[in-house]
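Please, structure for the following, as tokens.
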Amino acid sequence: MQKLIILGIVLVYSGALLAQTMDFEKYDPPSSLVVPEHPTRSSKYPFLDVHSHHWNMATQDLNQLIREMDSLNMGVCVNLSGRGGAALKAITDNIKKYNVDNRIVVFTNINLRSIDDPDYTVNTVKQLEFDVANGARGLKIFKSQGMQDKDSKGNRVRINDPRLDPVWAKCGELGIPILIHAADVPQFWEPMDENNERWLELKTHPGRKRSDTDPAPFETIIAEEHDIFKKHPKTTFINAHFGWYASNLGKLGQLLDEMPNMYVEFGAVIAELGRQPRTAAAFFEKYQNRILFGKDAYHPEEYPTYFRVLETADEYFPYHKRYHAFWRMYGMNLPDSILKKVYYENALKILPRMDRKVFERKYTK
């Protein structure tokens, strides 16, 4: 009997200990803080999302997309996944079919894998001209183009390969911007340990882990990107994801000062801005003419997080993906003059065939 009593005590004690432990991934308590909240489903002013992806736009029901855009107050959506050639023409034909070319902008893409072909550069420049003639208004460079694509010898194709210089120059001649995603967040290259802020993301998405040999050091890839910005000052570049310097706005400011042809957009890094609202607001004030609204993956339910960070003075609210950011955020409470620039004025300056007066007459009061 005594042994049974002791065993019972041990089991009860073990259960109590078990109740006090859990995986970090599961710990996500709601805040008990009671403060004013101002969430909104739509933006205060109409906006242009310069970073969106719609892979099936050639056959997509665009009326449904427009209804979703209207619910968010999105004036224009930029689909960066145009592919190029016949695939791009099919997309622009569908846009014309629905008569929404004033609401949807398409960027083309190029292929780097065949860069060893003797006629690669000539054919790629011709493709750009063909795509622009068929409605493309920009070029998107994916992160795979500079990280994963390899030449015939198995070497990584550097994004600043000299054979690509005519491509960047041609974009400048055609008056179309280049939105480029190079590398990933620097924490993906750091050791996956208790000091890595992205540990949770790497735990849940192990394929995102990088190293100096897979495919190259972070600093190397970023330097290649900056090299083409500097070599082609007559071409406009949009550095995606704040160039992965959203957590170091002082450094990003230096880069903007060095490269006047570089704009930035904050797709997928709004959580970095929301945890430093005073520093971020000061950055937006200083560089208010160079910042564009970008979201990345198109999920309508996630846009309100962006509106809340930009527009409100709310405190301590969560990001919509905990594995991206387990911290809380704060609103920057940007003034209307800066909001308008970020939401639409800056994008209208660099996207071809966009009329600000028409946009404002249609979408602003």
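The chain has one domain: 47-327+334-363. The first helix runs from residue 2 to 19.
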